[in-house]
């Protein structure tokens, strides 16, 4: 299959707003990719339709795509050939690698037509915006392979890789999808929590009885143990085992042979209190050999688990929370478990919330006791409550500062995720930024820039920032109809992707809650 055919499908998908039409276009392309029965072609083509490469990194960024050669008049490269060229680029290393990589980029792009160049450049730079989100591609895979959509979605949750799911569905059908299961050592997308302004509203969402967990301000970890082998994965499913020797040791101390546990890693001082998140994330980001001497470390990295997804040969993700937590309690000592209260009265939840704050935690997470572990989803089964209103938003642009902030990108344009696609601007803020944060964000945002104006720099919507605010008010100034009051930056969340940012619906929920409380 020619790469031009994939580029044509991408352009057609981008040109239509109808969901069904998008799915039909994508499904037709997937069927064409599968005609030769070549798994590599299917995987590469599915990746391109999703705006990705089969090779996650090839050492080429936006700067490497400047000054591209003139396009070819006619398409000639197949999907397989483009994939092979990208693989060759990814393998370049050592002395002379910069020049060699530049040569390969020019050779590849010289063989591509204008439309093909445009699509591949957008894929490499992570900027392909065609409206083919994962949900649409899941529908298209099901349609192309004539398999149940539910089977595709479950395989996606367990595999965490749309490309491999596409290959399984198109080559082996429903049987191939059924082969995906929880496998110790392969990380799963973690279950996520929605936000609510109060414990009472969280209980309305989850139902009662419910569990109220202390919300720890640490590093989310998913720990896999198979005998004496332990792997620790981050929220974004990166392998951080080498950075977490204390977590490995604590896991090996458990009386269990195989396990998959979900929790938080905290840097705990001698008094038993957690250190600030910045210290925790900095400690986790360094390998043991690059950490300061033990005497200079303010605490010890300690795991606090709150869920069990697998124990000694038994998968638990489909079990209700109450059974998963009982299994967790049976193997993990209290010192390594998140504090949990189960009850059906708002008063009990409020008391647990107050106790969590007294202990220096962020707040609580209210959890439905009968809900399964919904891999990769942010549903109403888990609802987080913090004492201050916070949202995880995406930086859409930034304005150059003036006065003492001259030369730094300062005023941030903040956007909430639109479930239908894209982001909705909510306002701007320059509050809460230290000099160190200003310097860091200026460099980071310039790396993400797509348009460098004299006053405003527009960036790829990838950087997530945690914003505190006092309330939400109606606004005709912004397209979402709402704006944040007294927004201020708390921290950047590079452990989160833009797909995990809070939605415009969550922002509006805060506005509605405030209206009810004052009416």
Compact overview of the structure:
By secondary structure, this protein is of the alpha+beta class. The protein has helices at residues 3-15, 19-34, 39-49, 79-91, 97-110, 114-125, 134-145, 149-159, 162-172, 174-178, 199-206, 245-252, 277-285, 321-331, 346-358, 435-447, 504-518; strands at residues 192-195, 210-215, 219-226, 229-234, 258-268, 300-311, 314-315, 340-343, 363-368, 378-385, 389-400, 409-417, 423-429, 449-452, 456-459, 464-469, 471-474, 482-485, 488-492. It contains 17 helices and 19 strands.
What does this structure look like?
38% of the residues lie in helices and 24% in strands. The protein has 519 residues and is an alpha+beta fold. Strands 11, 12, 13, 14, 15, 16 and 19 form a seven-stranded antiparallel sheet that branches. The longest helix has 16 residues, at 19-34.
């Amino acid at each position: 299959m020619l790469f031009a055919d994939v580029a044509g499908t991408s352009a057609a998908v981008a040109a239509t707003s109808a969901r069904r039409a998008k799915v039909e276009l994508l499904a037709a392309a997937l069927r064409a990719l599968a005609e030769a029965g070549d798994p590599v072609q299917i995987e590469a083509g599915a990746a391109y339709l999703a705006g990705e490469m089969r090779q996650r990194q090839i050492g080429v960024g936006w700067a490497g795509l400047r000054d591209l050669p003139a396009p070819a008049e006619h398409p000639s490269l197949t999907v397989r050939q483009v994939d092979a060229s990208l693989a060759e680029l990814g393998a370049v290393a050592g002395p002379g690698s910069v020049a060699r990589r530049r040569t390969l980029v020019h050779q590849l792009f010289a063989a591509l037509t204008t439309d093909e160049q445009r699509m591949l450049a957008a894929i490499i730079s992570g900027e392909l915006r065609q409206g083919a989100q994962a949900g649409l591609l899941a529908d298209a895979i099901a349609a192309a392979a004539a398999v149940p959509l539910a089977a595709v979605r479950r395989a996606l949750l367990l595999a965490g890789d749309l490309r491999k799911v596409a290959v399984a569905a198109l080559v082996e059908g429903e049987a191939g999808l059924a082969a995906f299961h929880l496998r110790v050592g392969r990380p799963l997308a973690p279950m996520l929590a929605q936000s609510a302004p109060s414990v009472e509203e969280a209980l309305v969402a989850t139902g009662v009885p419910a569990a109220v967990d202390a919300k720890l301000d640490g590093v989310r970890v998913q720990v896999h143990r198979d005998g004496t082998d332990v792997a620790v994965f981050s929220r974004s499913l990166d392998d951080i085992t080498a950075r977490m020797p204390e977590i490995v040791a604590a896991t090996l101390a458990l009386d269990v042979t195989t396990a998959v546990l979900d929790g938080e890693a905290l840097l705990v001082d001698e008094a038993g209190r957690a250190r600030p998140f910045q210290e925790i994330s900095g400690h986790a980001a360094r390998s043991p050999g690059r950490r300061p001497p033990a005497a200079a470390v303010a605490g010890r990295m300690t795991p606090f688990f709150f869920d069990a997804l697998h124990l000694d040969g038994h998968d638990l993700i489909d079990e209700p929370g109450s059974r998963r937590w009982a299994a967790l309690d049976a193997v993990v000592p209290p010192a390594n478990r998140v504090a949990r209260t189960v009850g059906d009265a708002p008063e009990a939840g409020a008391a647990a919330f107050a106790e969590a704050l007294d202990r220096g935690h962020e707040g609580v997470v209210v959890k439905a006791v009968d809900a399964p572990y919904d891999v990769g989803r942010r549903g109403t089964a888990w609802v987080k409550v913090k004492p201050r209103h916070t949202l995880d938003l995406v930086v859409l642009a930034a304005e150059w500062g003036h006065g003492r902030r001259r030369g730094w990108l300062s005023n941030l344009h903040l956007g909430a995720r639109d479930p239908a696609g894209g982001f909705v601007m909510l306002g701007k803020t320059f509050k809460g930024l230290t000099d160190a944060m200003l310097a860091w964000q200026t460099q980071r945002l310039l790396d993400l820039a797509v348009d460098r104006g004299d006053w405003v720099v527009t960036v790829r919507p990838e950087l997530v920032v945690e914003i505190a605010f006092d309330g939400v008010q109606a606004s005709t100034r912004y397209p979402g109809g709402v704006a944040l009051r007294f927004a201020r930056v708390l921290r950047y969340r590079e452990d989160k992707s833009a797909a995990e940012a809070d939605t415009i619906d969550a922002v509006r929920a805060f506005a509605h809650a405030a209206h009810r409380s004052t009416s």
